[in-house]
Design brief:
Blueprint (H helix, E strand, L loop, with lengths): L2 H7 L5 E5 H18 L2 E5 L6 H7 L5 E4 L2 H10 L5 E6 L7 H4 L5 E4 L2 H10 L5 E7 L21 E2 H6 L8 E3 L10 H18 L4 E3 L13 H14 L2 E4 L3 H4 L3 E13 L2 E6 L8 H4 L5 E2 L8 E6 L8 E7 L8 E5 L19 E6 L2 E6 L3 H8 L3
Parallel strand pairs: 1-17, 2-3, 2-10, 3-4, 4-5, 5-6, 6-7, 6-8, 8-9, 9-10, 12-14
Antiparallel strand pairs: 1-11, 11-12, 11-16, 13-16, 14-15, 17-18
The structure holds pyridoxal-5'-phosphate (PLP).
The site of pyridoxal-5'-phosphate (PLP) has 15 residues, from α10.
Length: about 375
């Protein structure tokens, strides 16, 4: 994908471009893993629920993983060939149950209390599971560690070893990492699961190993293939994985334009027509985005800042070989996951126009207007 020529072709700024060629490449890689290990692959819709992604992913995956009624309803519109729809969430509401439960092929209750409460509301053909908290932390930031102390995510594995009357449970779900690039966390977690709950695993129909792995950045998939084949062989169950970021992150690009340049306390500030509105994780987790034009040893240091009123709406300091000018265009790469889905219109700034790119063709998929903003904030 020639980003330089795309800058000239894109007629709206800011813009989000979805690279469909890359999306298909990621899906093909998972297809190979699926064939080699015998696992089933679900796309975790929360990363980017855009219809083009759901449509293209559908034939390559065994279904979708969702967190809510709206995600389930949207995913269901795109599900073909008896694909599975798996849900796990701490936020299940009884008000939604009658709409939600007929859509789900699998559910992993987040707690024993949630399991007991929803069982009494009636479950038709959905296969019932439990999300397990394996109590093994691999992340040094509590904000995204599902195994942090006093975690709200999943049934404590040690509590589960003591629990009885779980005969309806047909599956377990685990998810405890974030952007991992080797399979050590999963190997250790499955080892703990086997040691603590081996007898129960033998009575299950399925085990969902969650997401959290960047498969396209892991060179050697053999440890995962061995782990999944071993589980299938020893316990005769279906093994699912539900990646989100691995499928969409490197397929997304955020194009933006410089609106203003000035000095502040001796540093050059460039204001962009995008902001942390369009990628809130830049602010939430102090993520530094990969900027196409950044040259690590170049002499012009510039702080790229967003256009909102928030003082901390800053992408960070980047380096360039030439001084920047108003009207220059920049591209942030690897922003397909957890960016657009979290994007907002704070300060009244529009959402990026969405384009897709495939076989060297650019196609405008969606453009937002004042009417969308108005519709959200007015009552008539
Ligand atoms: C339960 C569950 N499954 C799957 C995912 C997808 O993870 P990732 O996008 O890191 O692959 C998440 C992400 O938060 C999750 O919470």
């Amino acid at each position: 994908m020639d980003l330089q020529s795309l800058k000239a072709q894109i007629d709206n700024s800011p813009a989000f471009v979805l690279n469909i060629d890359l999306l298909q490449k990621n899906l093909a890689q998972l297809q190979t893993l699926r064939q080699q290990s015998g696992c089933k692959v679900l796309y975790s819709v929360k990363a980017l629920p855009f219809s083009a992604v759901l449509k293209i992913a559908n034939p390559w995956v065994d279904g979708f993983a969702v967190s809510s009624l709206f995600e389930a309803q949207l995913a269901n519109e795109f599900l073909i060939n008896d694909g599975s729809l798996h849900l796990t969430t701490p936020g299940l509401s009884p008000d939604e149950w009658s709409d939600l439960s007929p859509l789900l092929s699998h559910i992993s209750f987040n707690s024993l209390t949630q399991y007991q409460r929803f069982l009494t509301l009636g479950i038709n053909s959905t296969s019932i599971g439990l999300r397990i908290n394996p109590k093994l932390s691999f992340l040094n930031d509590n904000r995204f560690d599902p195994c942090r102390p006093h975690s709200k995510l999943g049934v404590d594995i040690d509590v589960l070893t003591q629990a009885n009357r779980l005969q309806e449970i047909k599956g377990f779900h685990i998810h405890s990492t974030f952007s991992a690039t080797d399979f050590t966390p999963l190997t250790k977690t499955v080892e703990k699961l086997r040691n603590s709950l081996g007898n129960r695993l033998a009575q299950l129909d399925w085990l969902n190993l969650g997401g959290g792995y960047l498969f396209n950045y892991v060179n050697d998939h053999q440890p995962l293939i061995n782990l999944i084949s071993g589980l299938k062989e020893d316990y005769k169950l279906d093994v699912f994985i539900e990646p989100g970021k691995a499928i969409v992150d490197n397929t997304g690009y955020l194009f933006s334009t410089v609106l203003d340049i000035f000095m502040s306390d001796g540093k050059t500030i460039a204001i962009l027509d995008t902001s942390v509105n369009h990628h809130p994780e830049v602010f939430e987790y102090q993520r530094r985005l990969d900027l196409h034009e950044h040259q690590p040893n170049a002499k012009h240091h510039v702080i790229l800042a967003g256009s909102s009123c928030l003082a901390g709406d800053i992408f960070g300091e980047y380096q360039f070989s030439e001084p920047l000018k108003v009207g220059d265009k920049f591209v942030f790469k690897n922003v397909g996951a957890y960016s657009l889905i979290k994007a907002n219109r704070f300060n009244g700034y529009n959402l990026p126009t969405i384009y897709s790119y495939q076989n060297q063709q650019l196609h405008k998929e969606k453009q937002y207007h004042f009417s969308d903003y108005r519709q959200q904030w007015t009552t008539n």
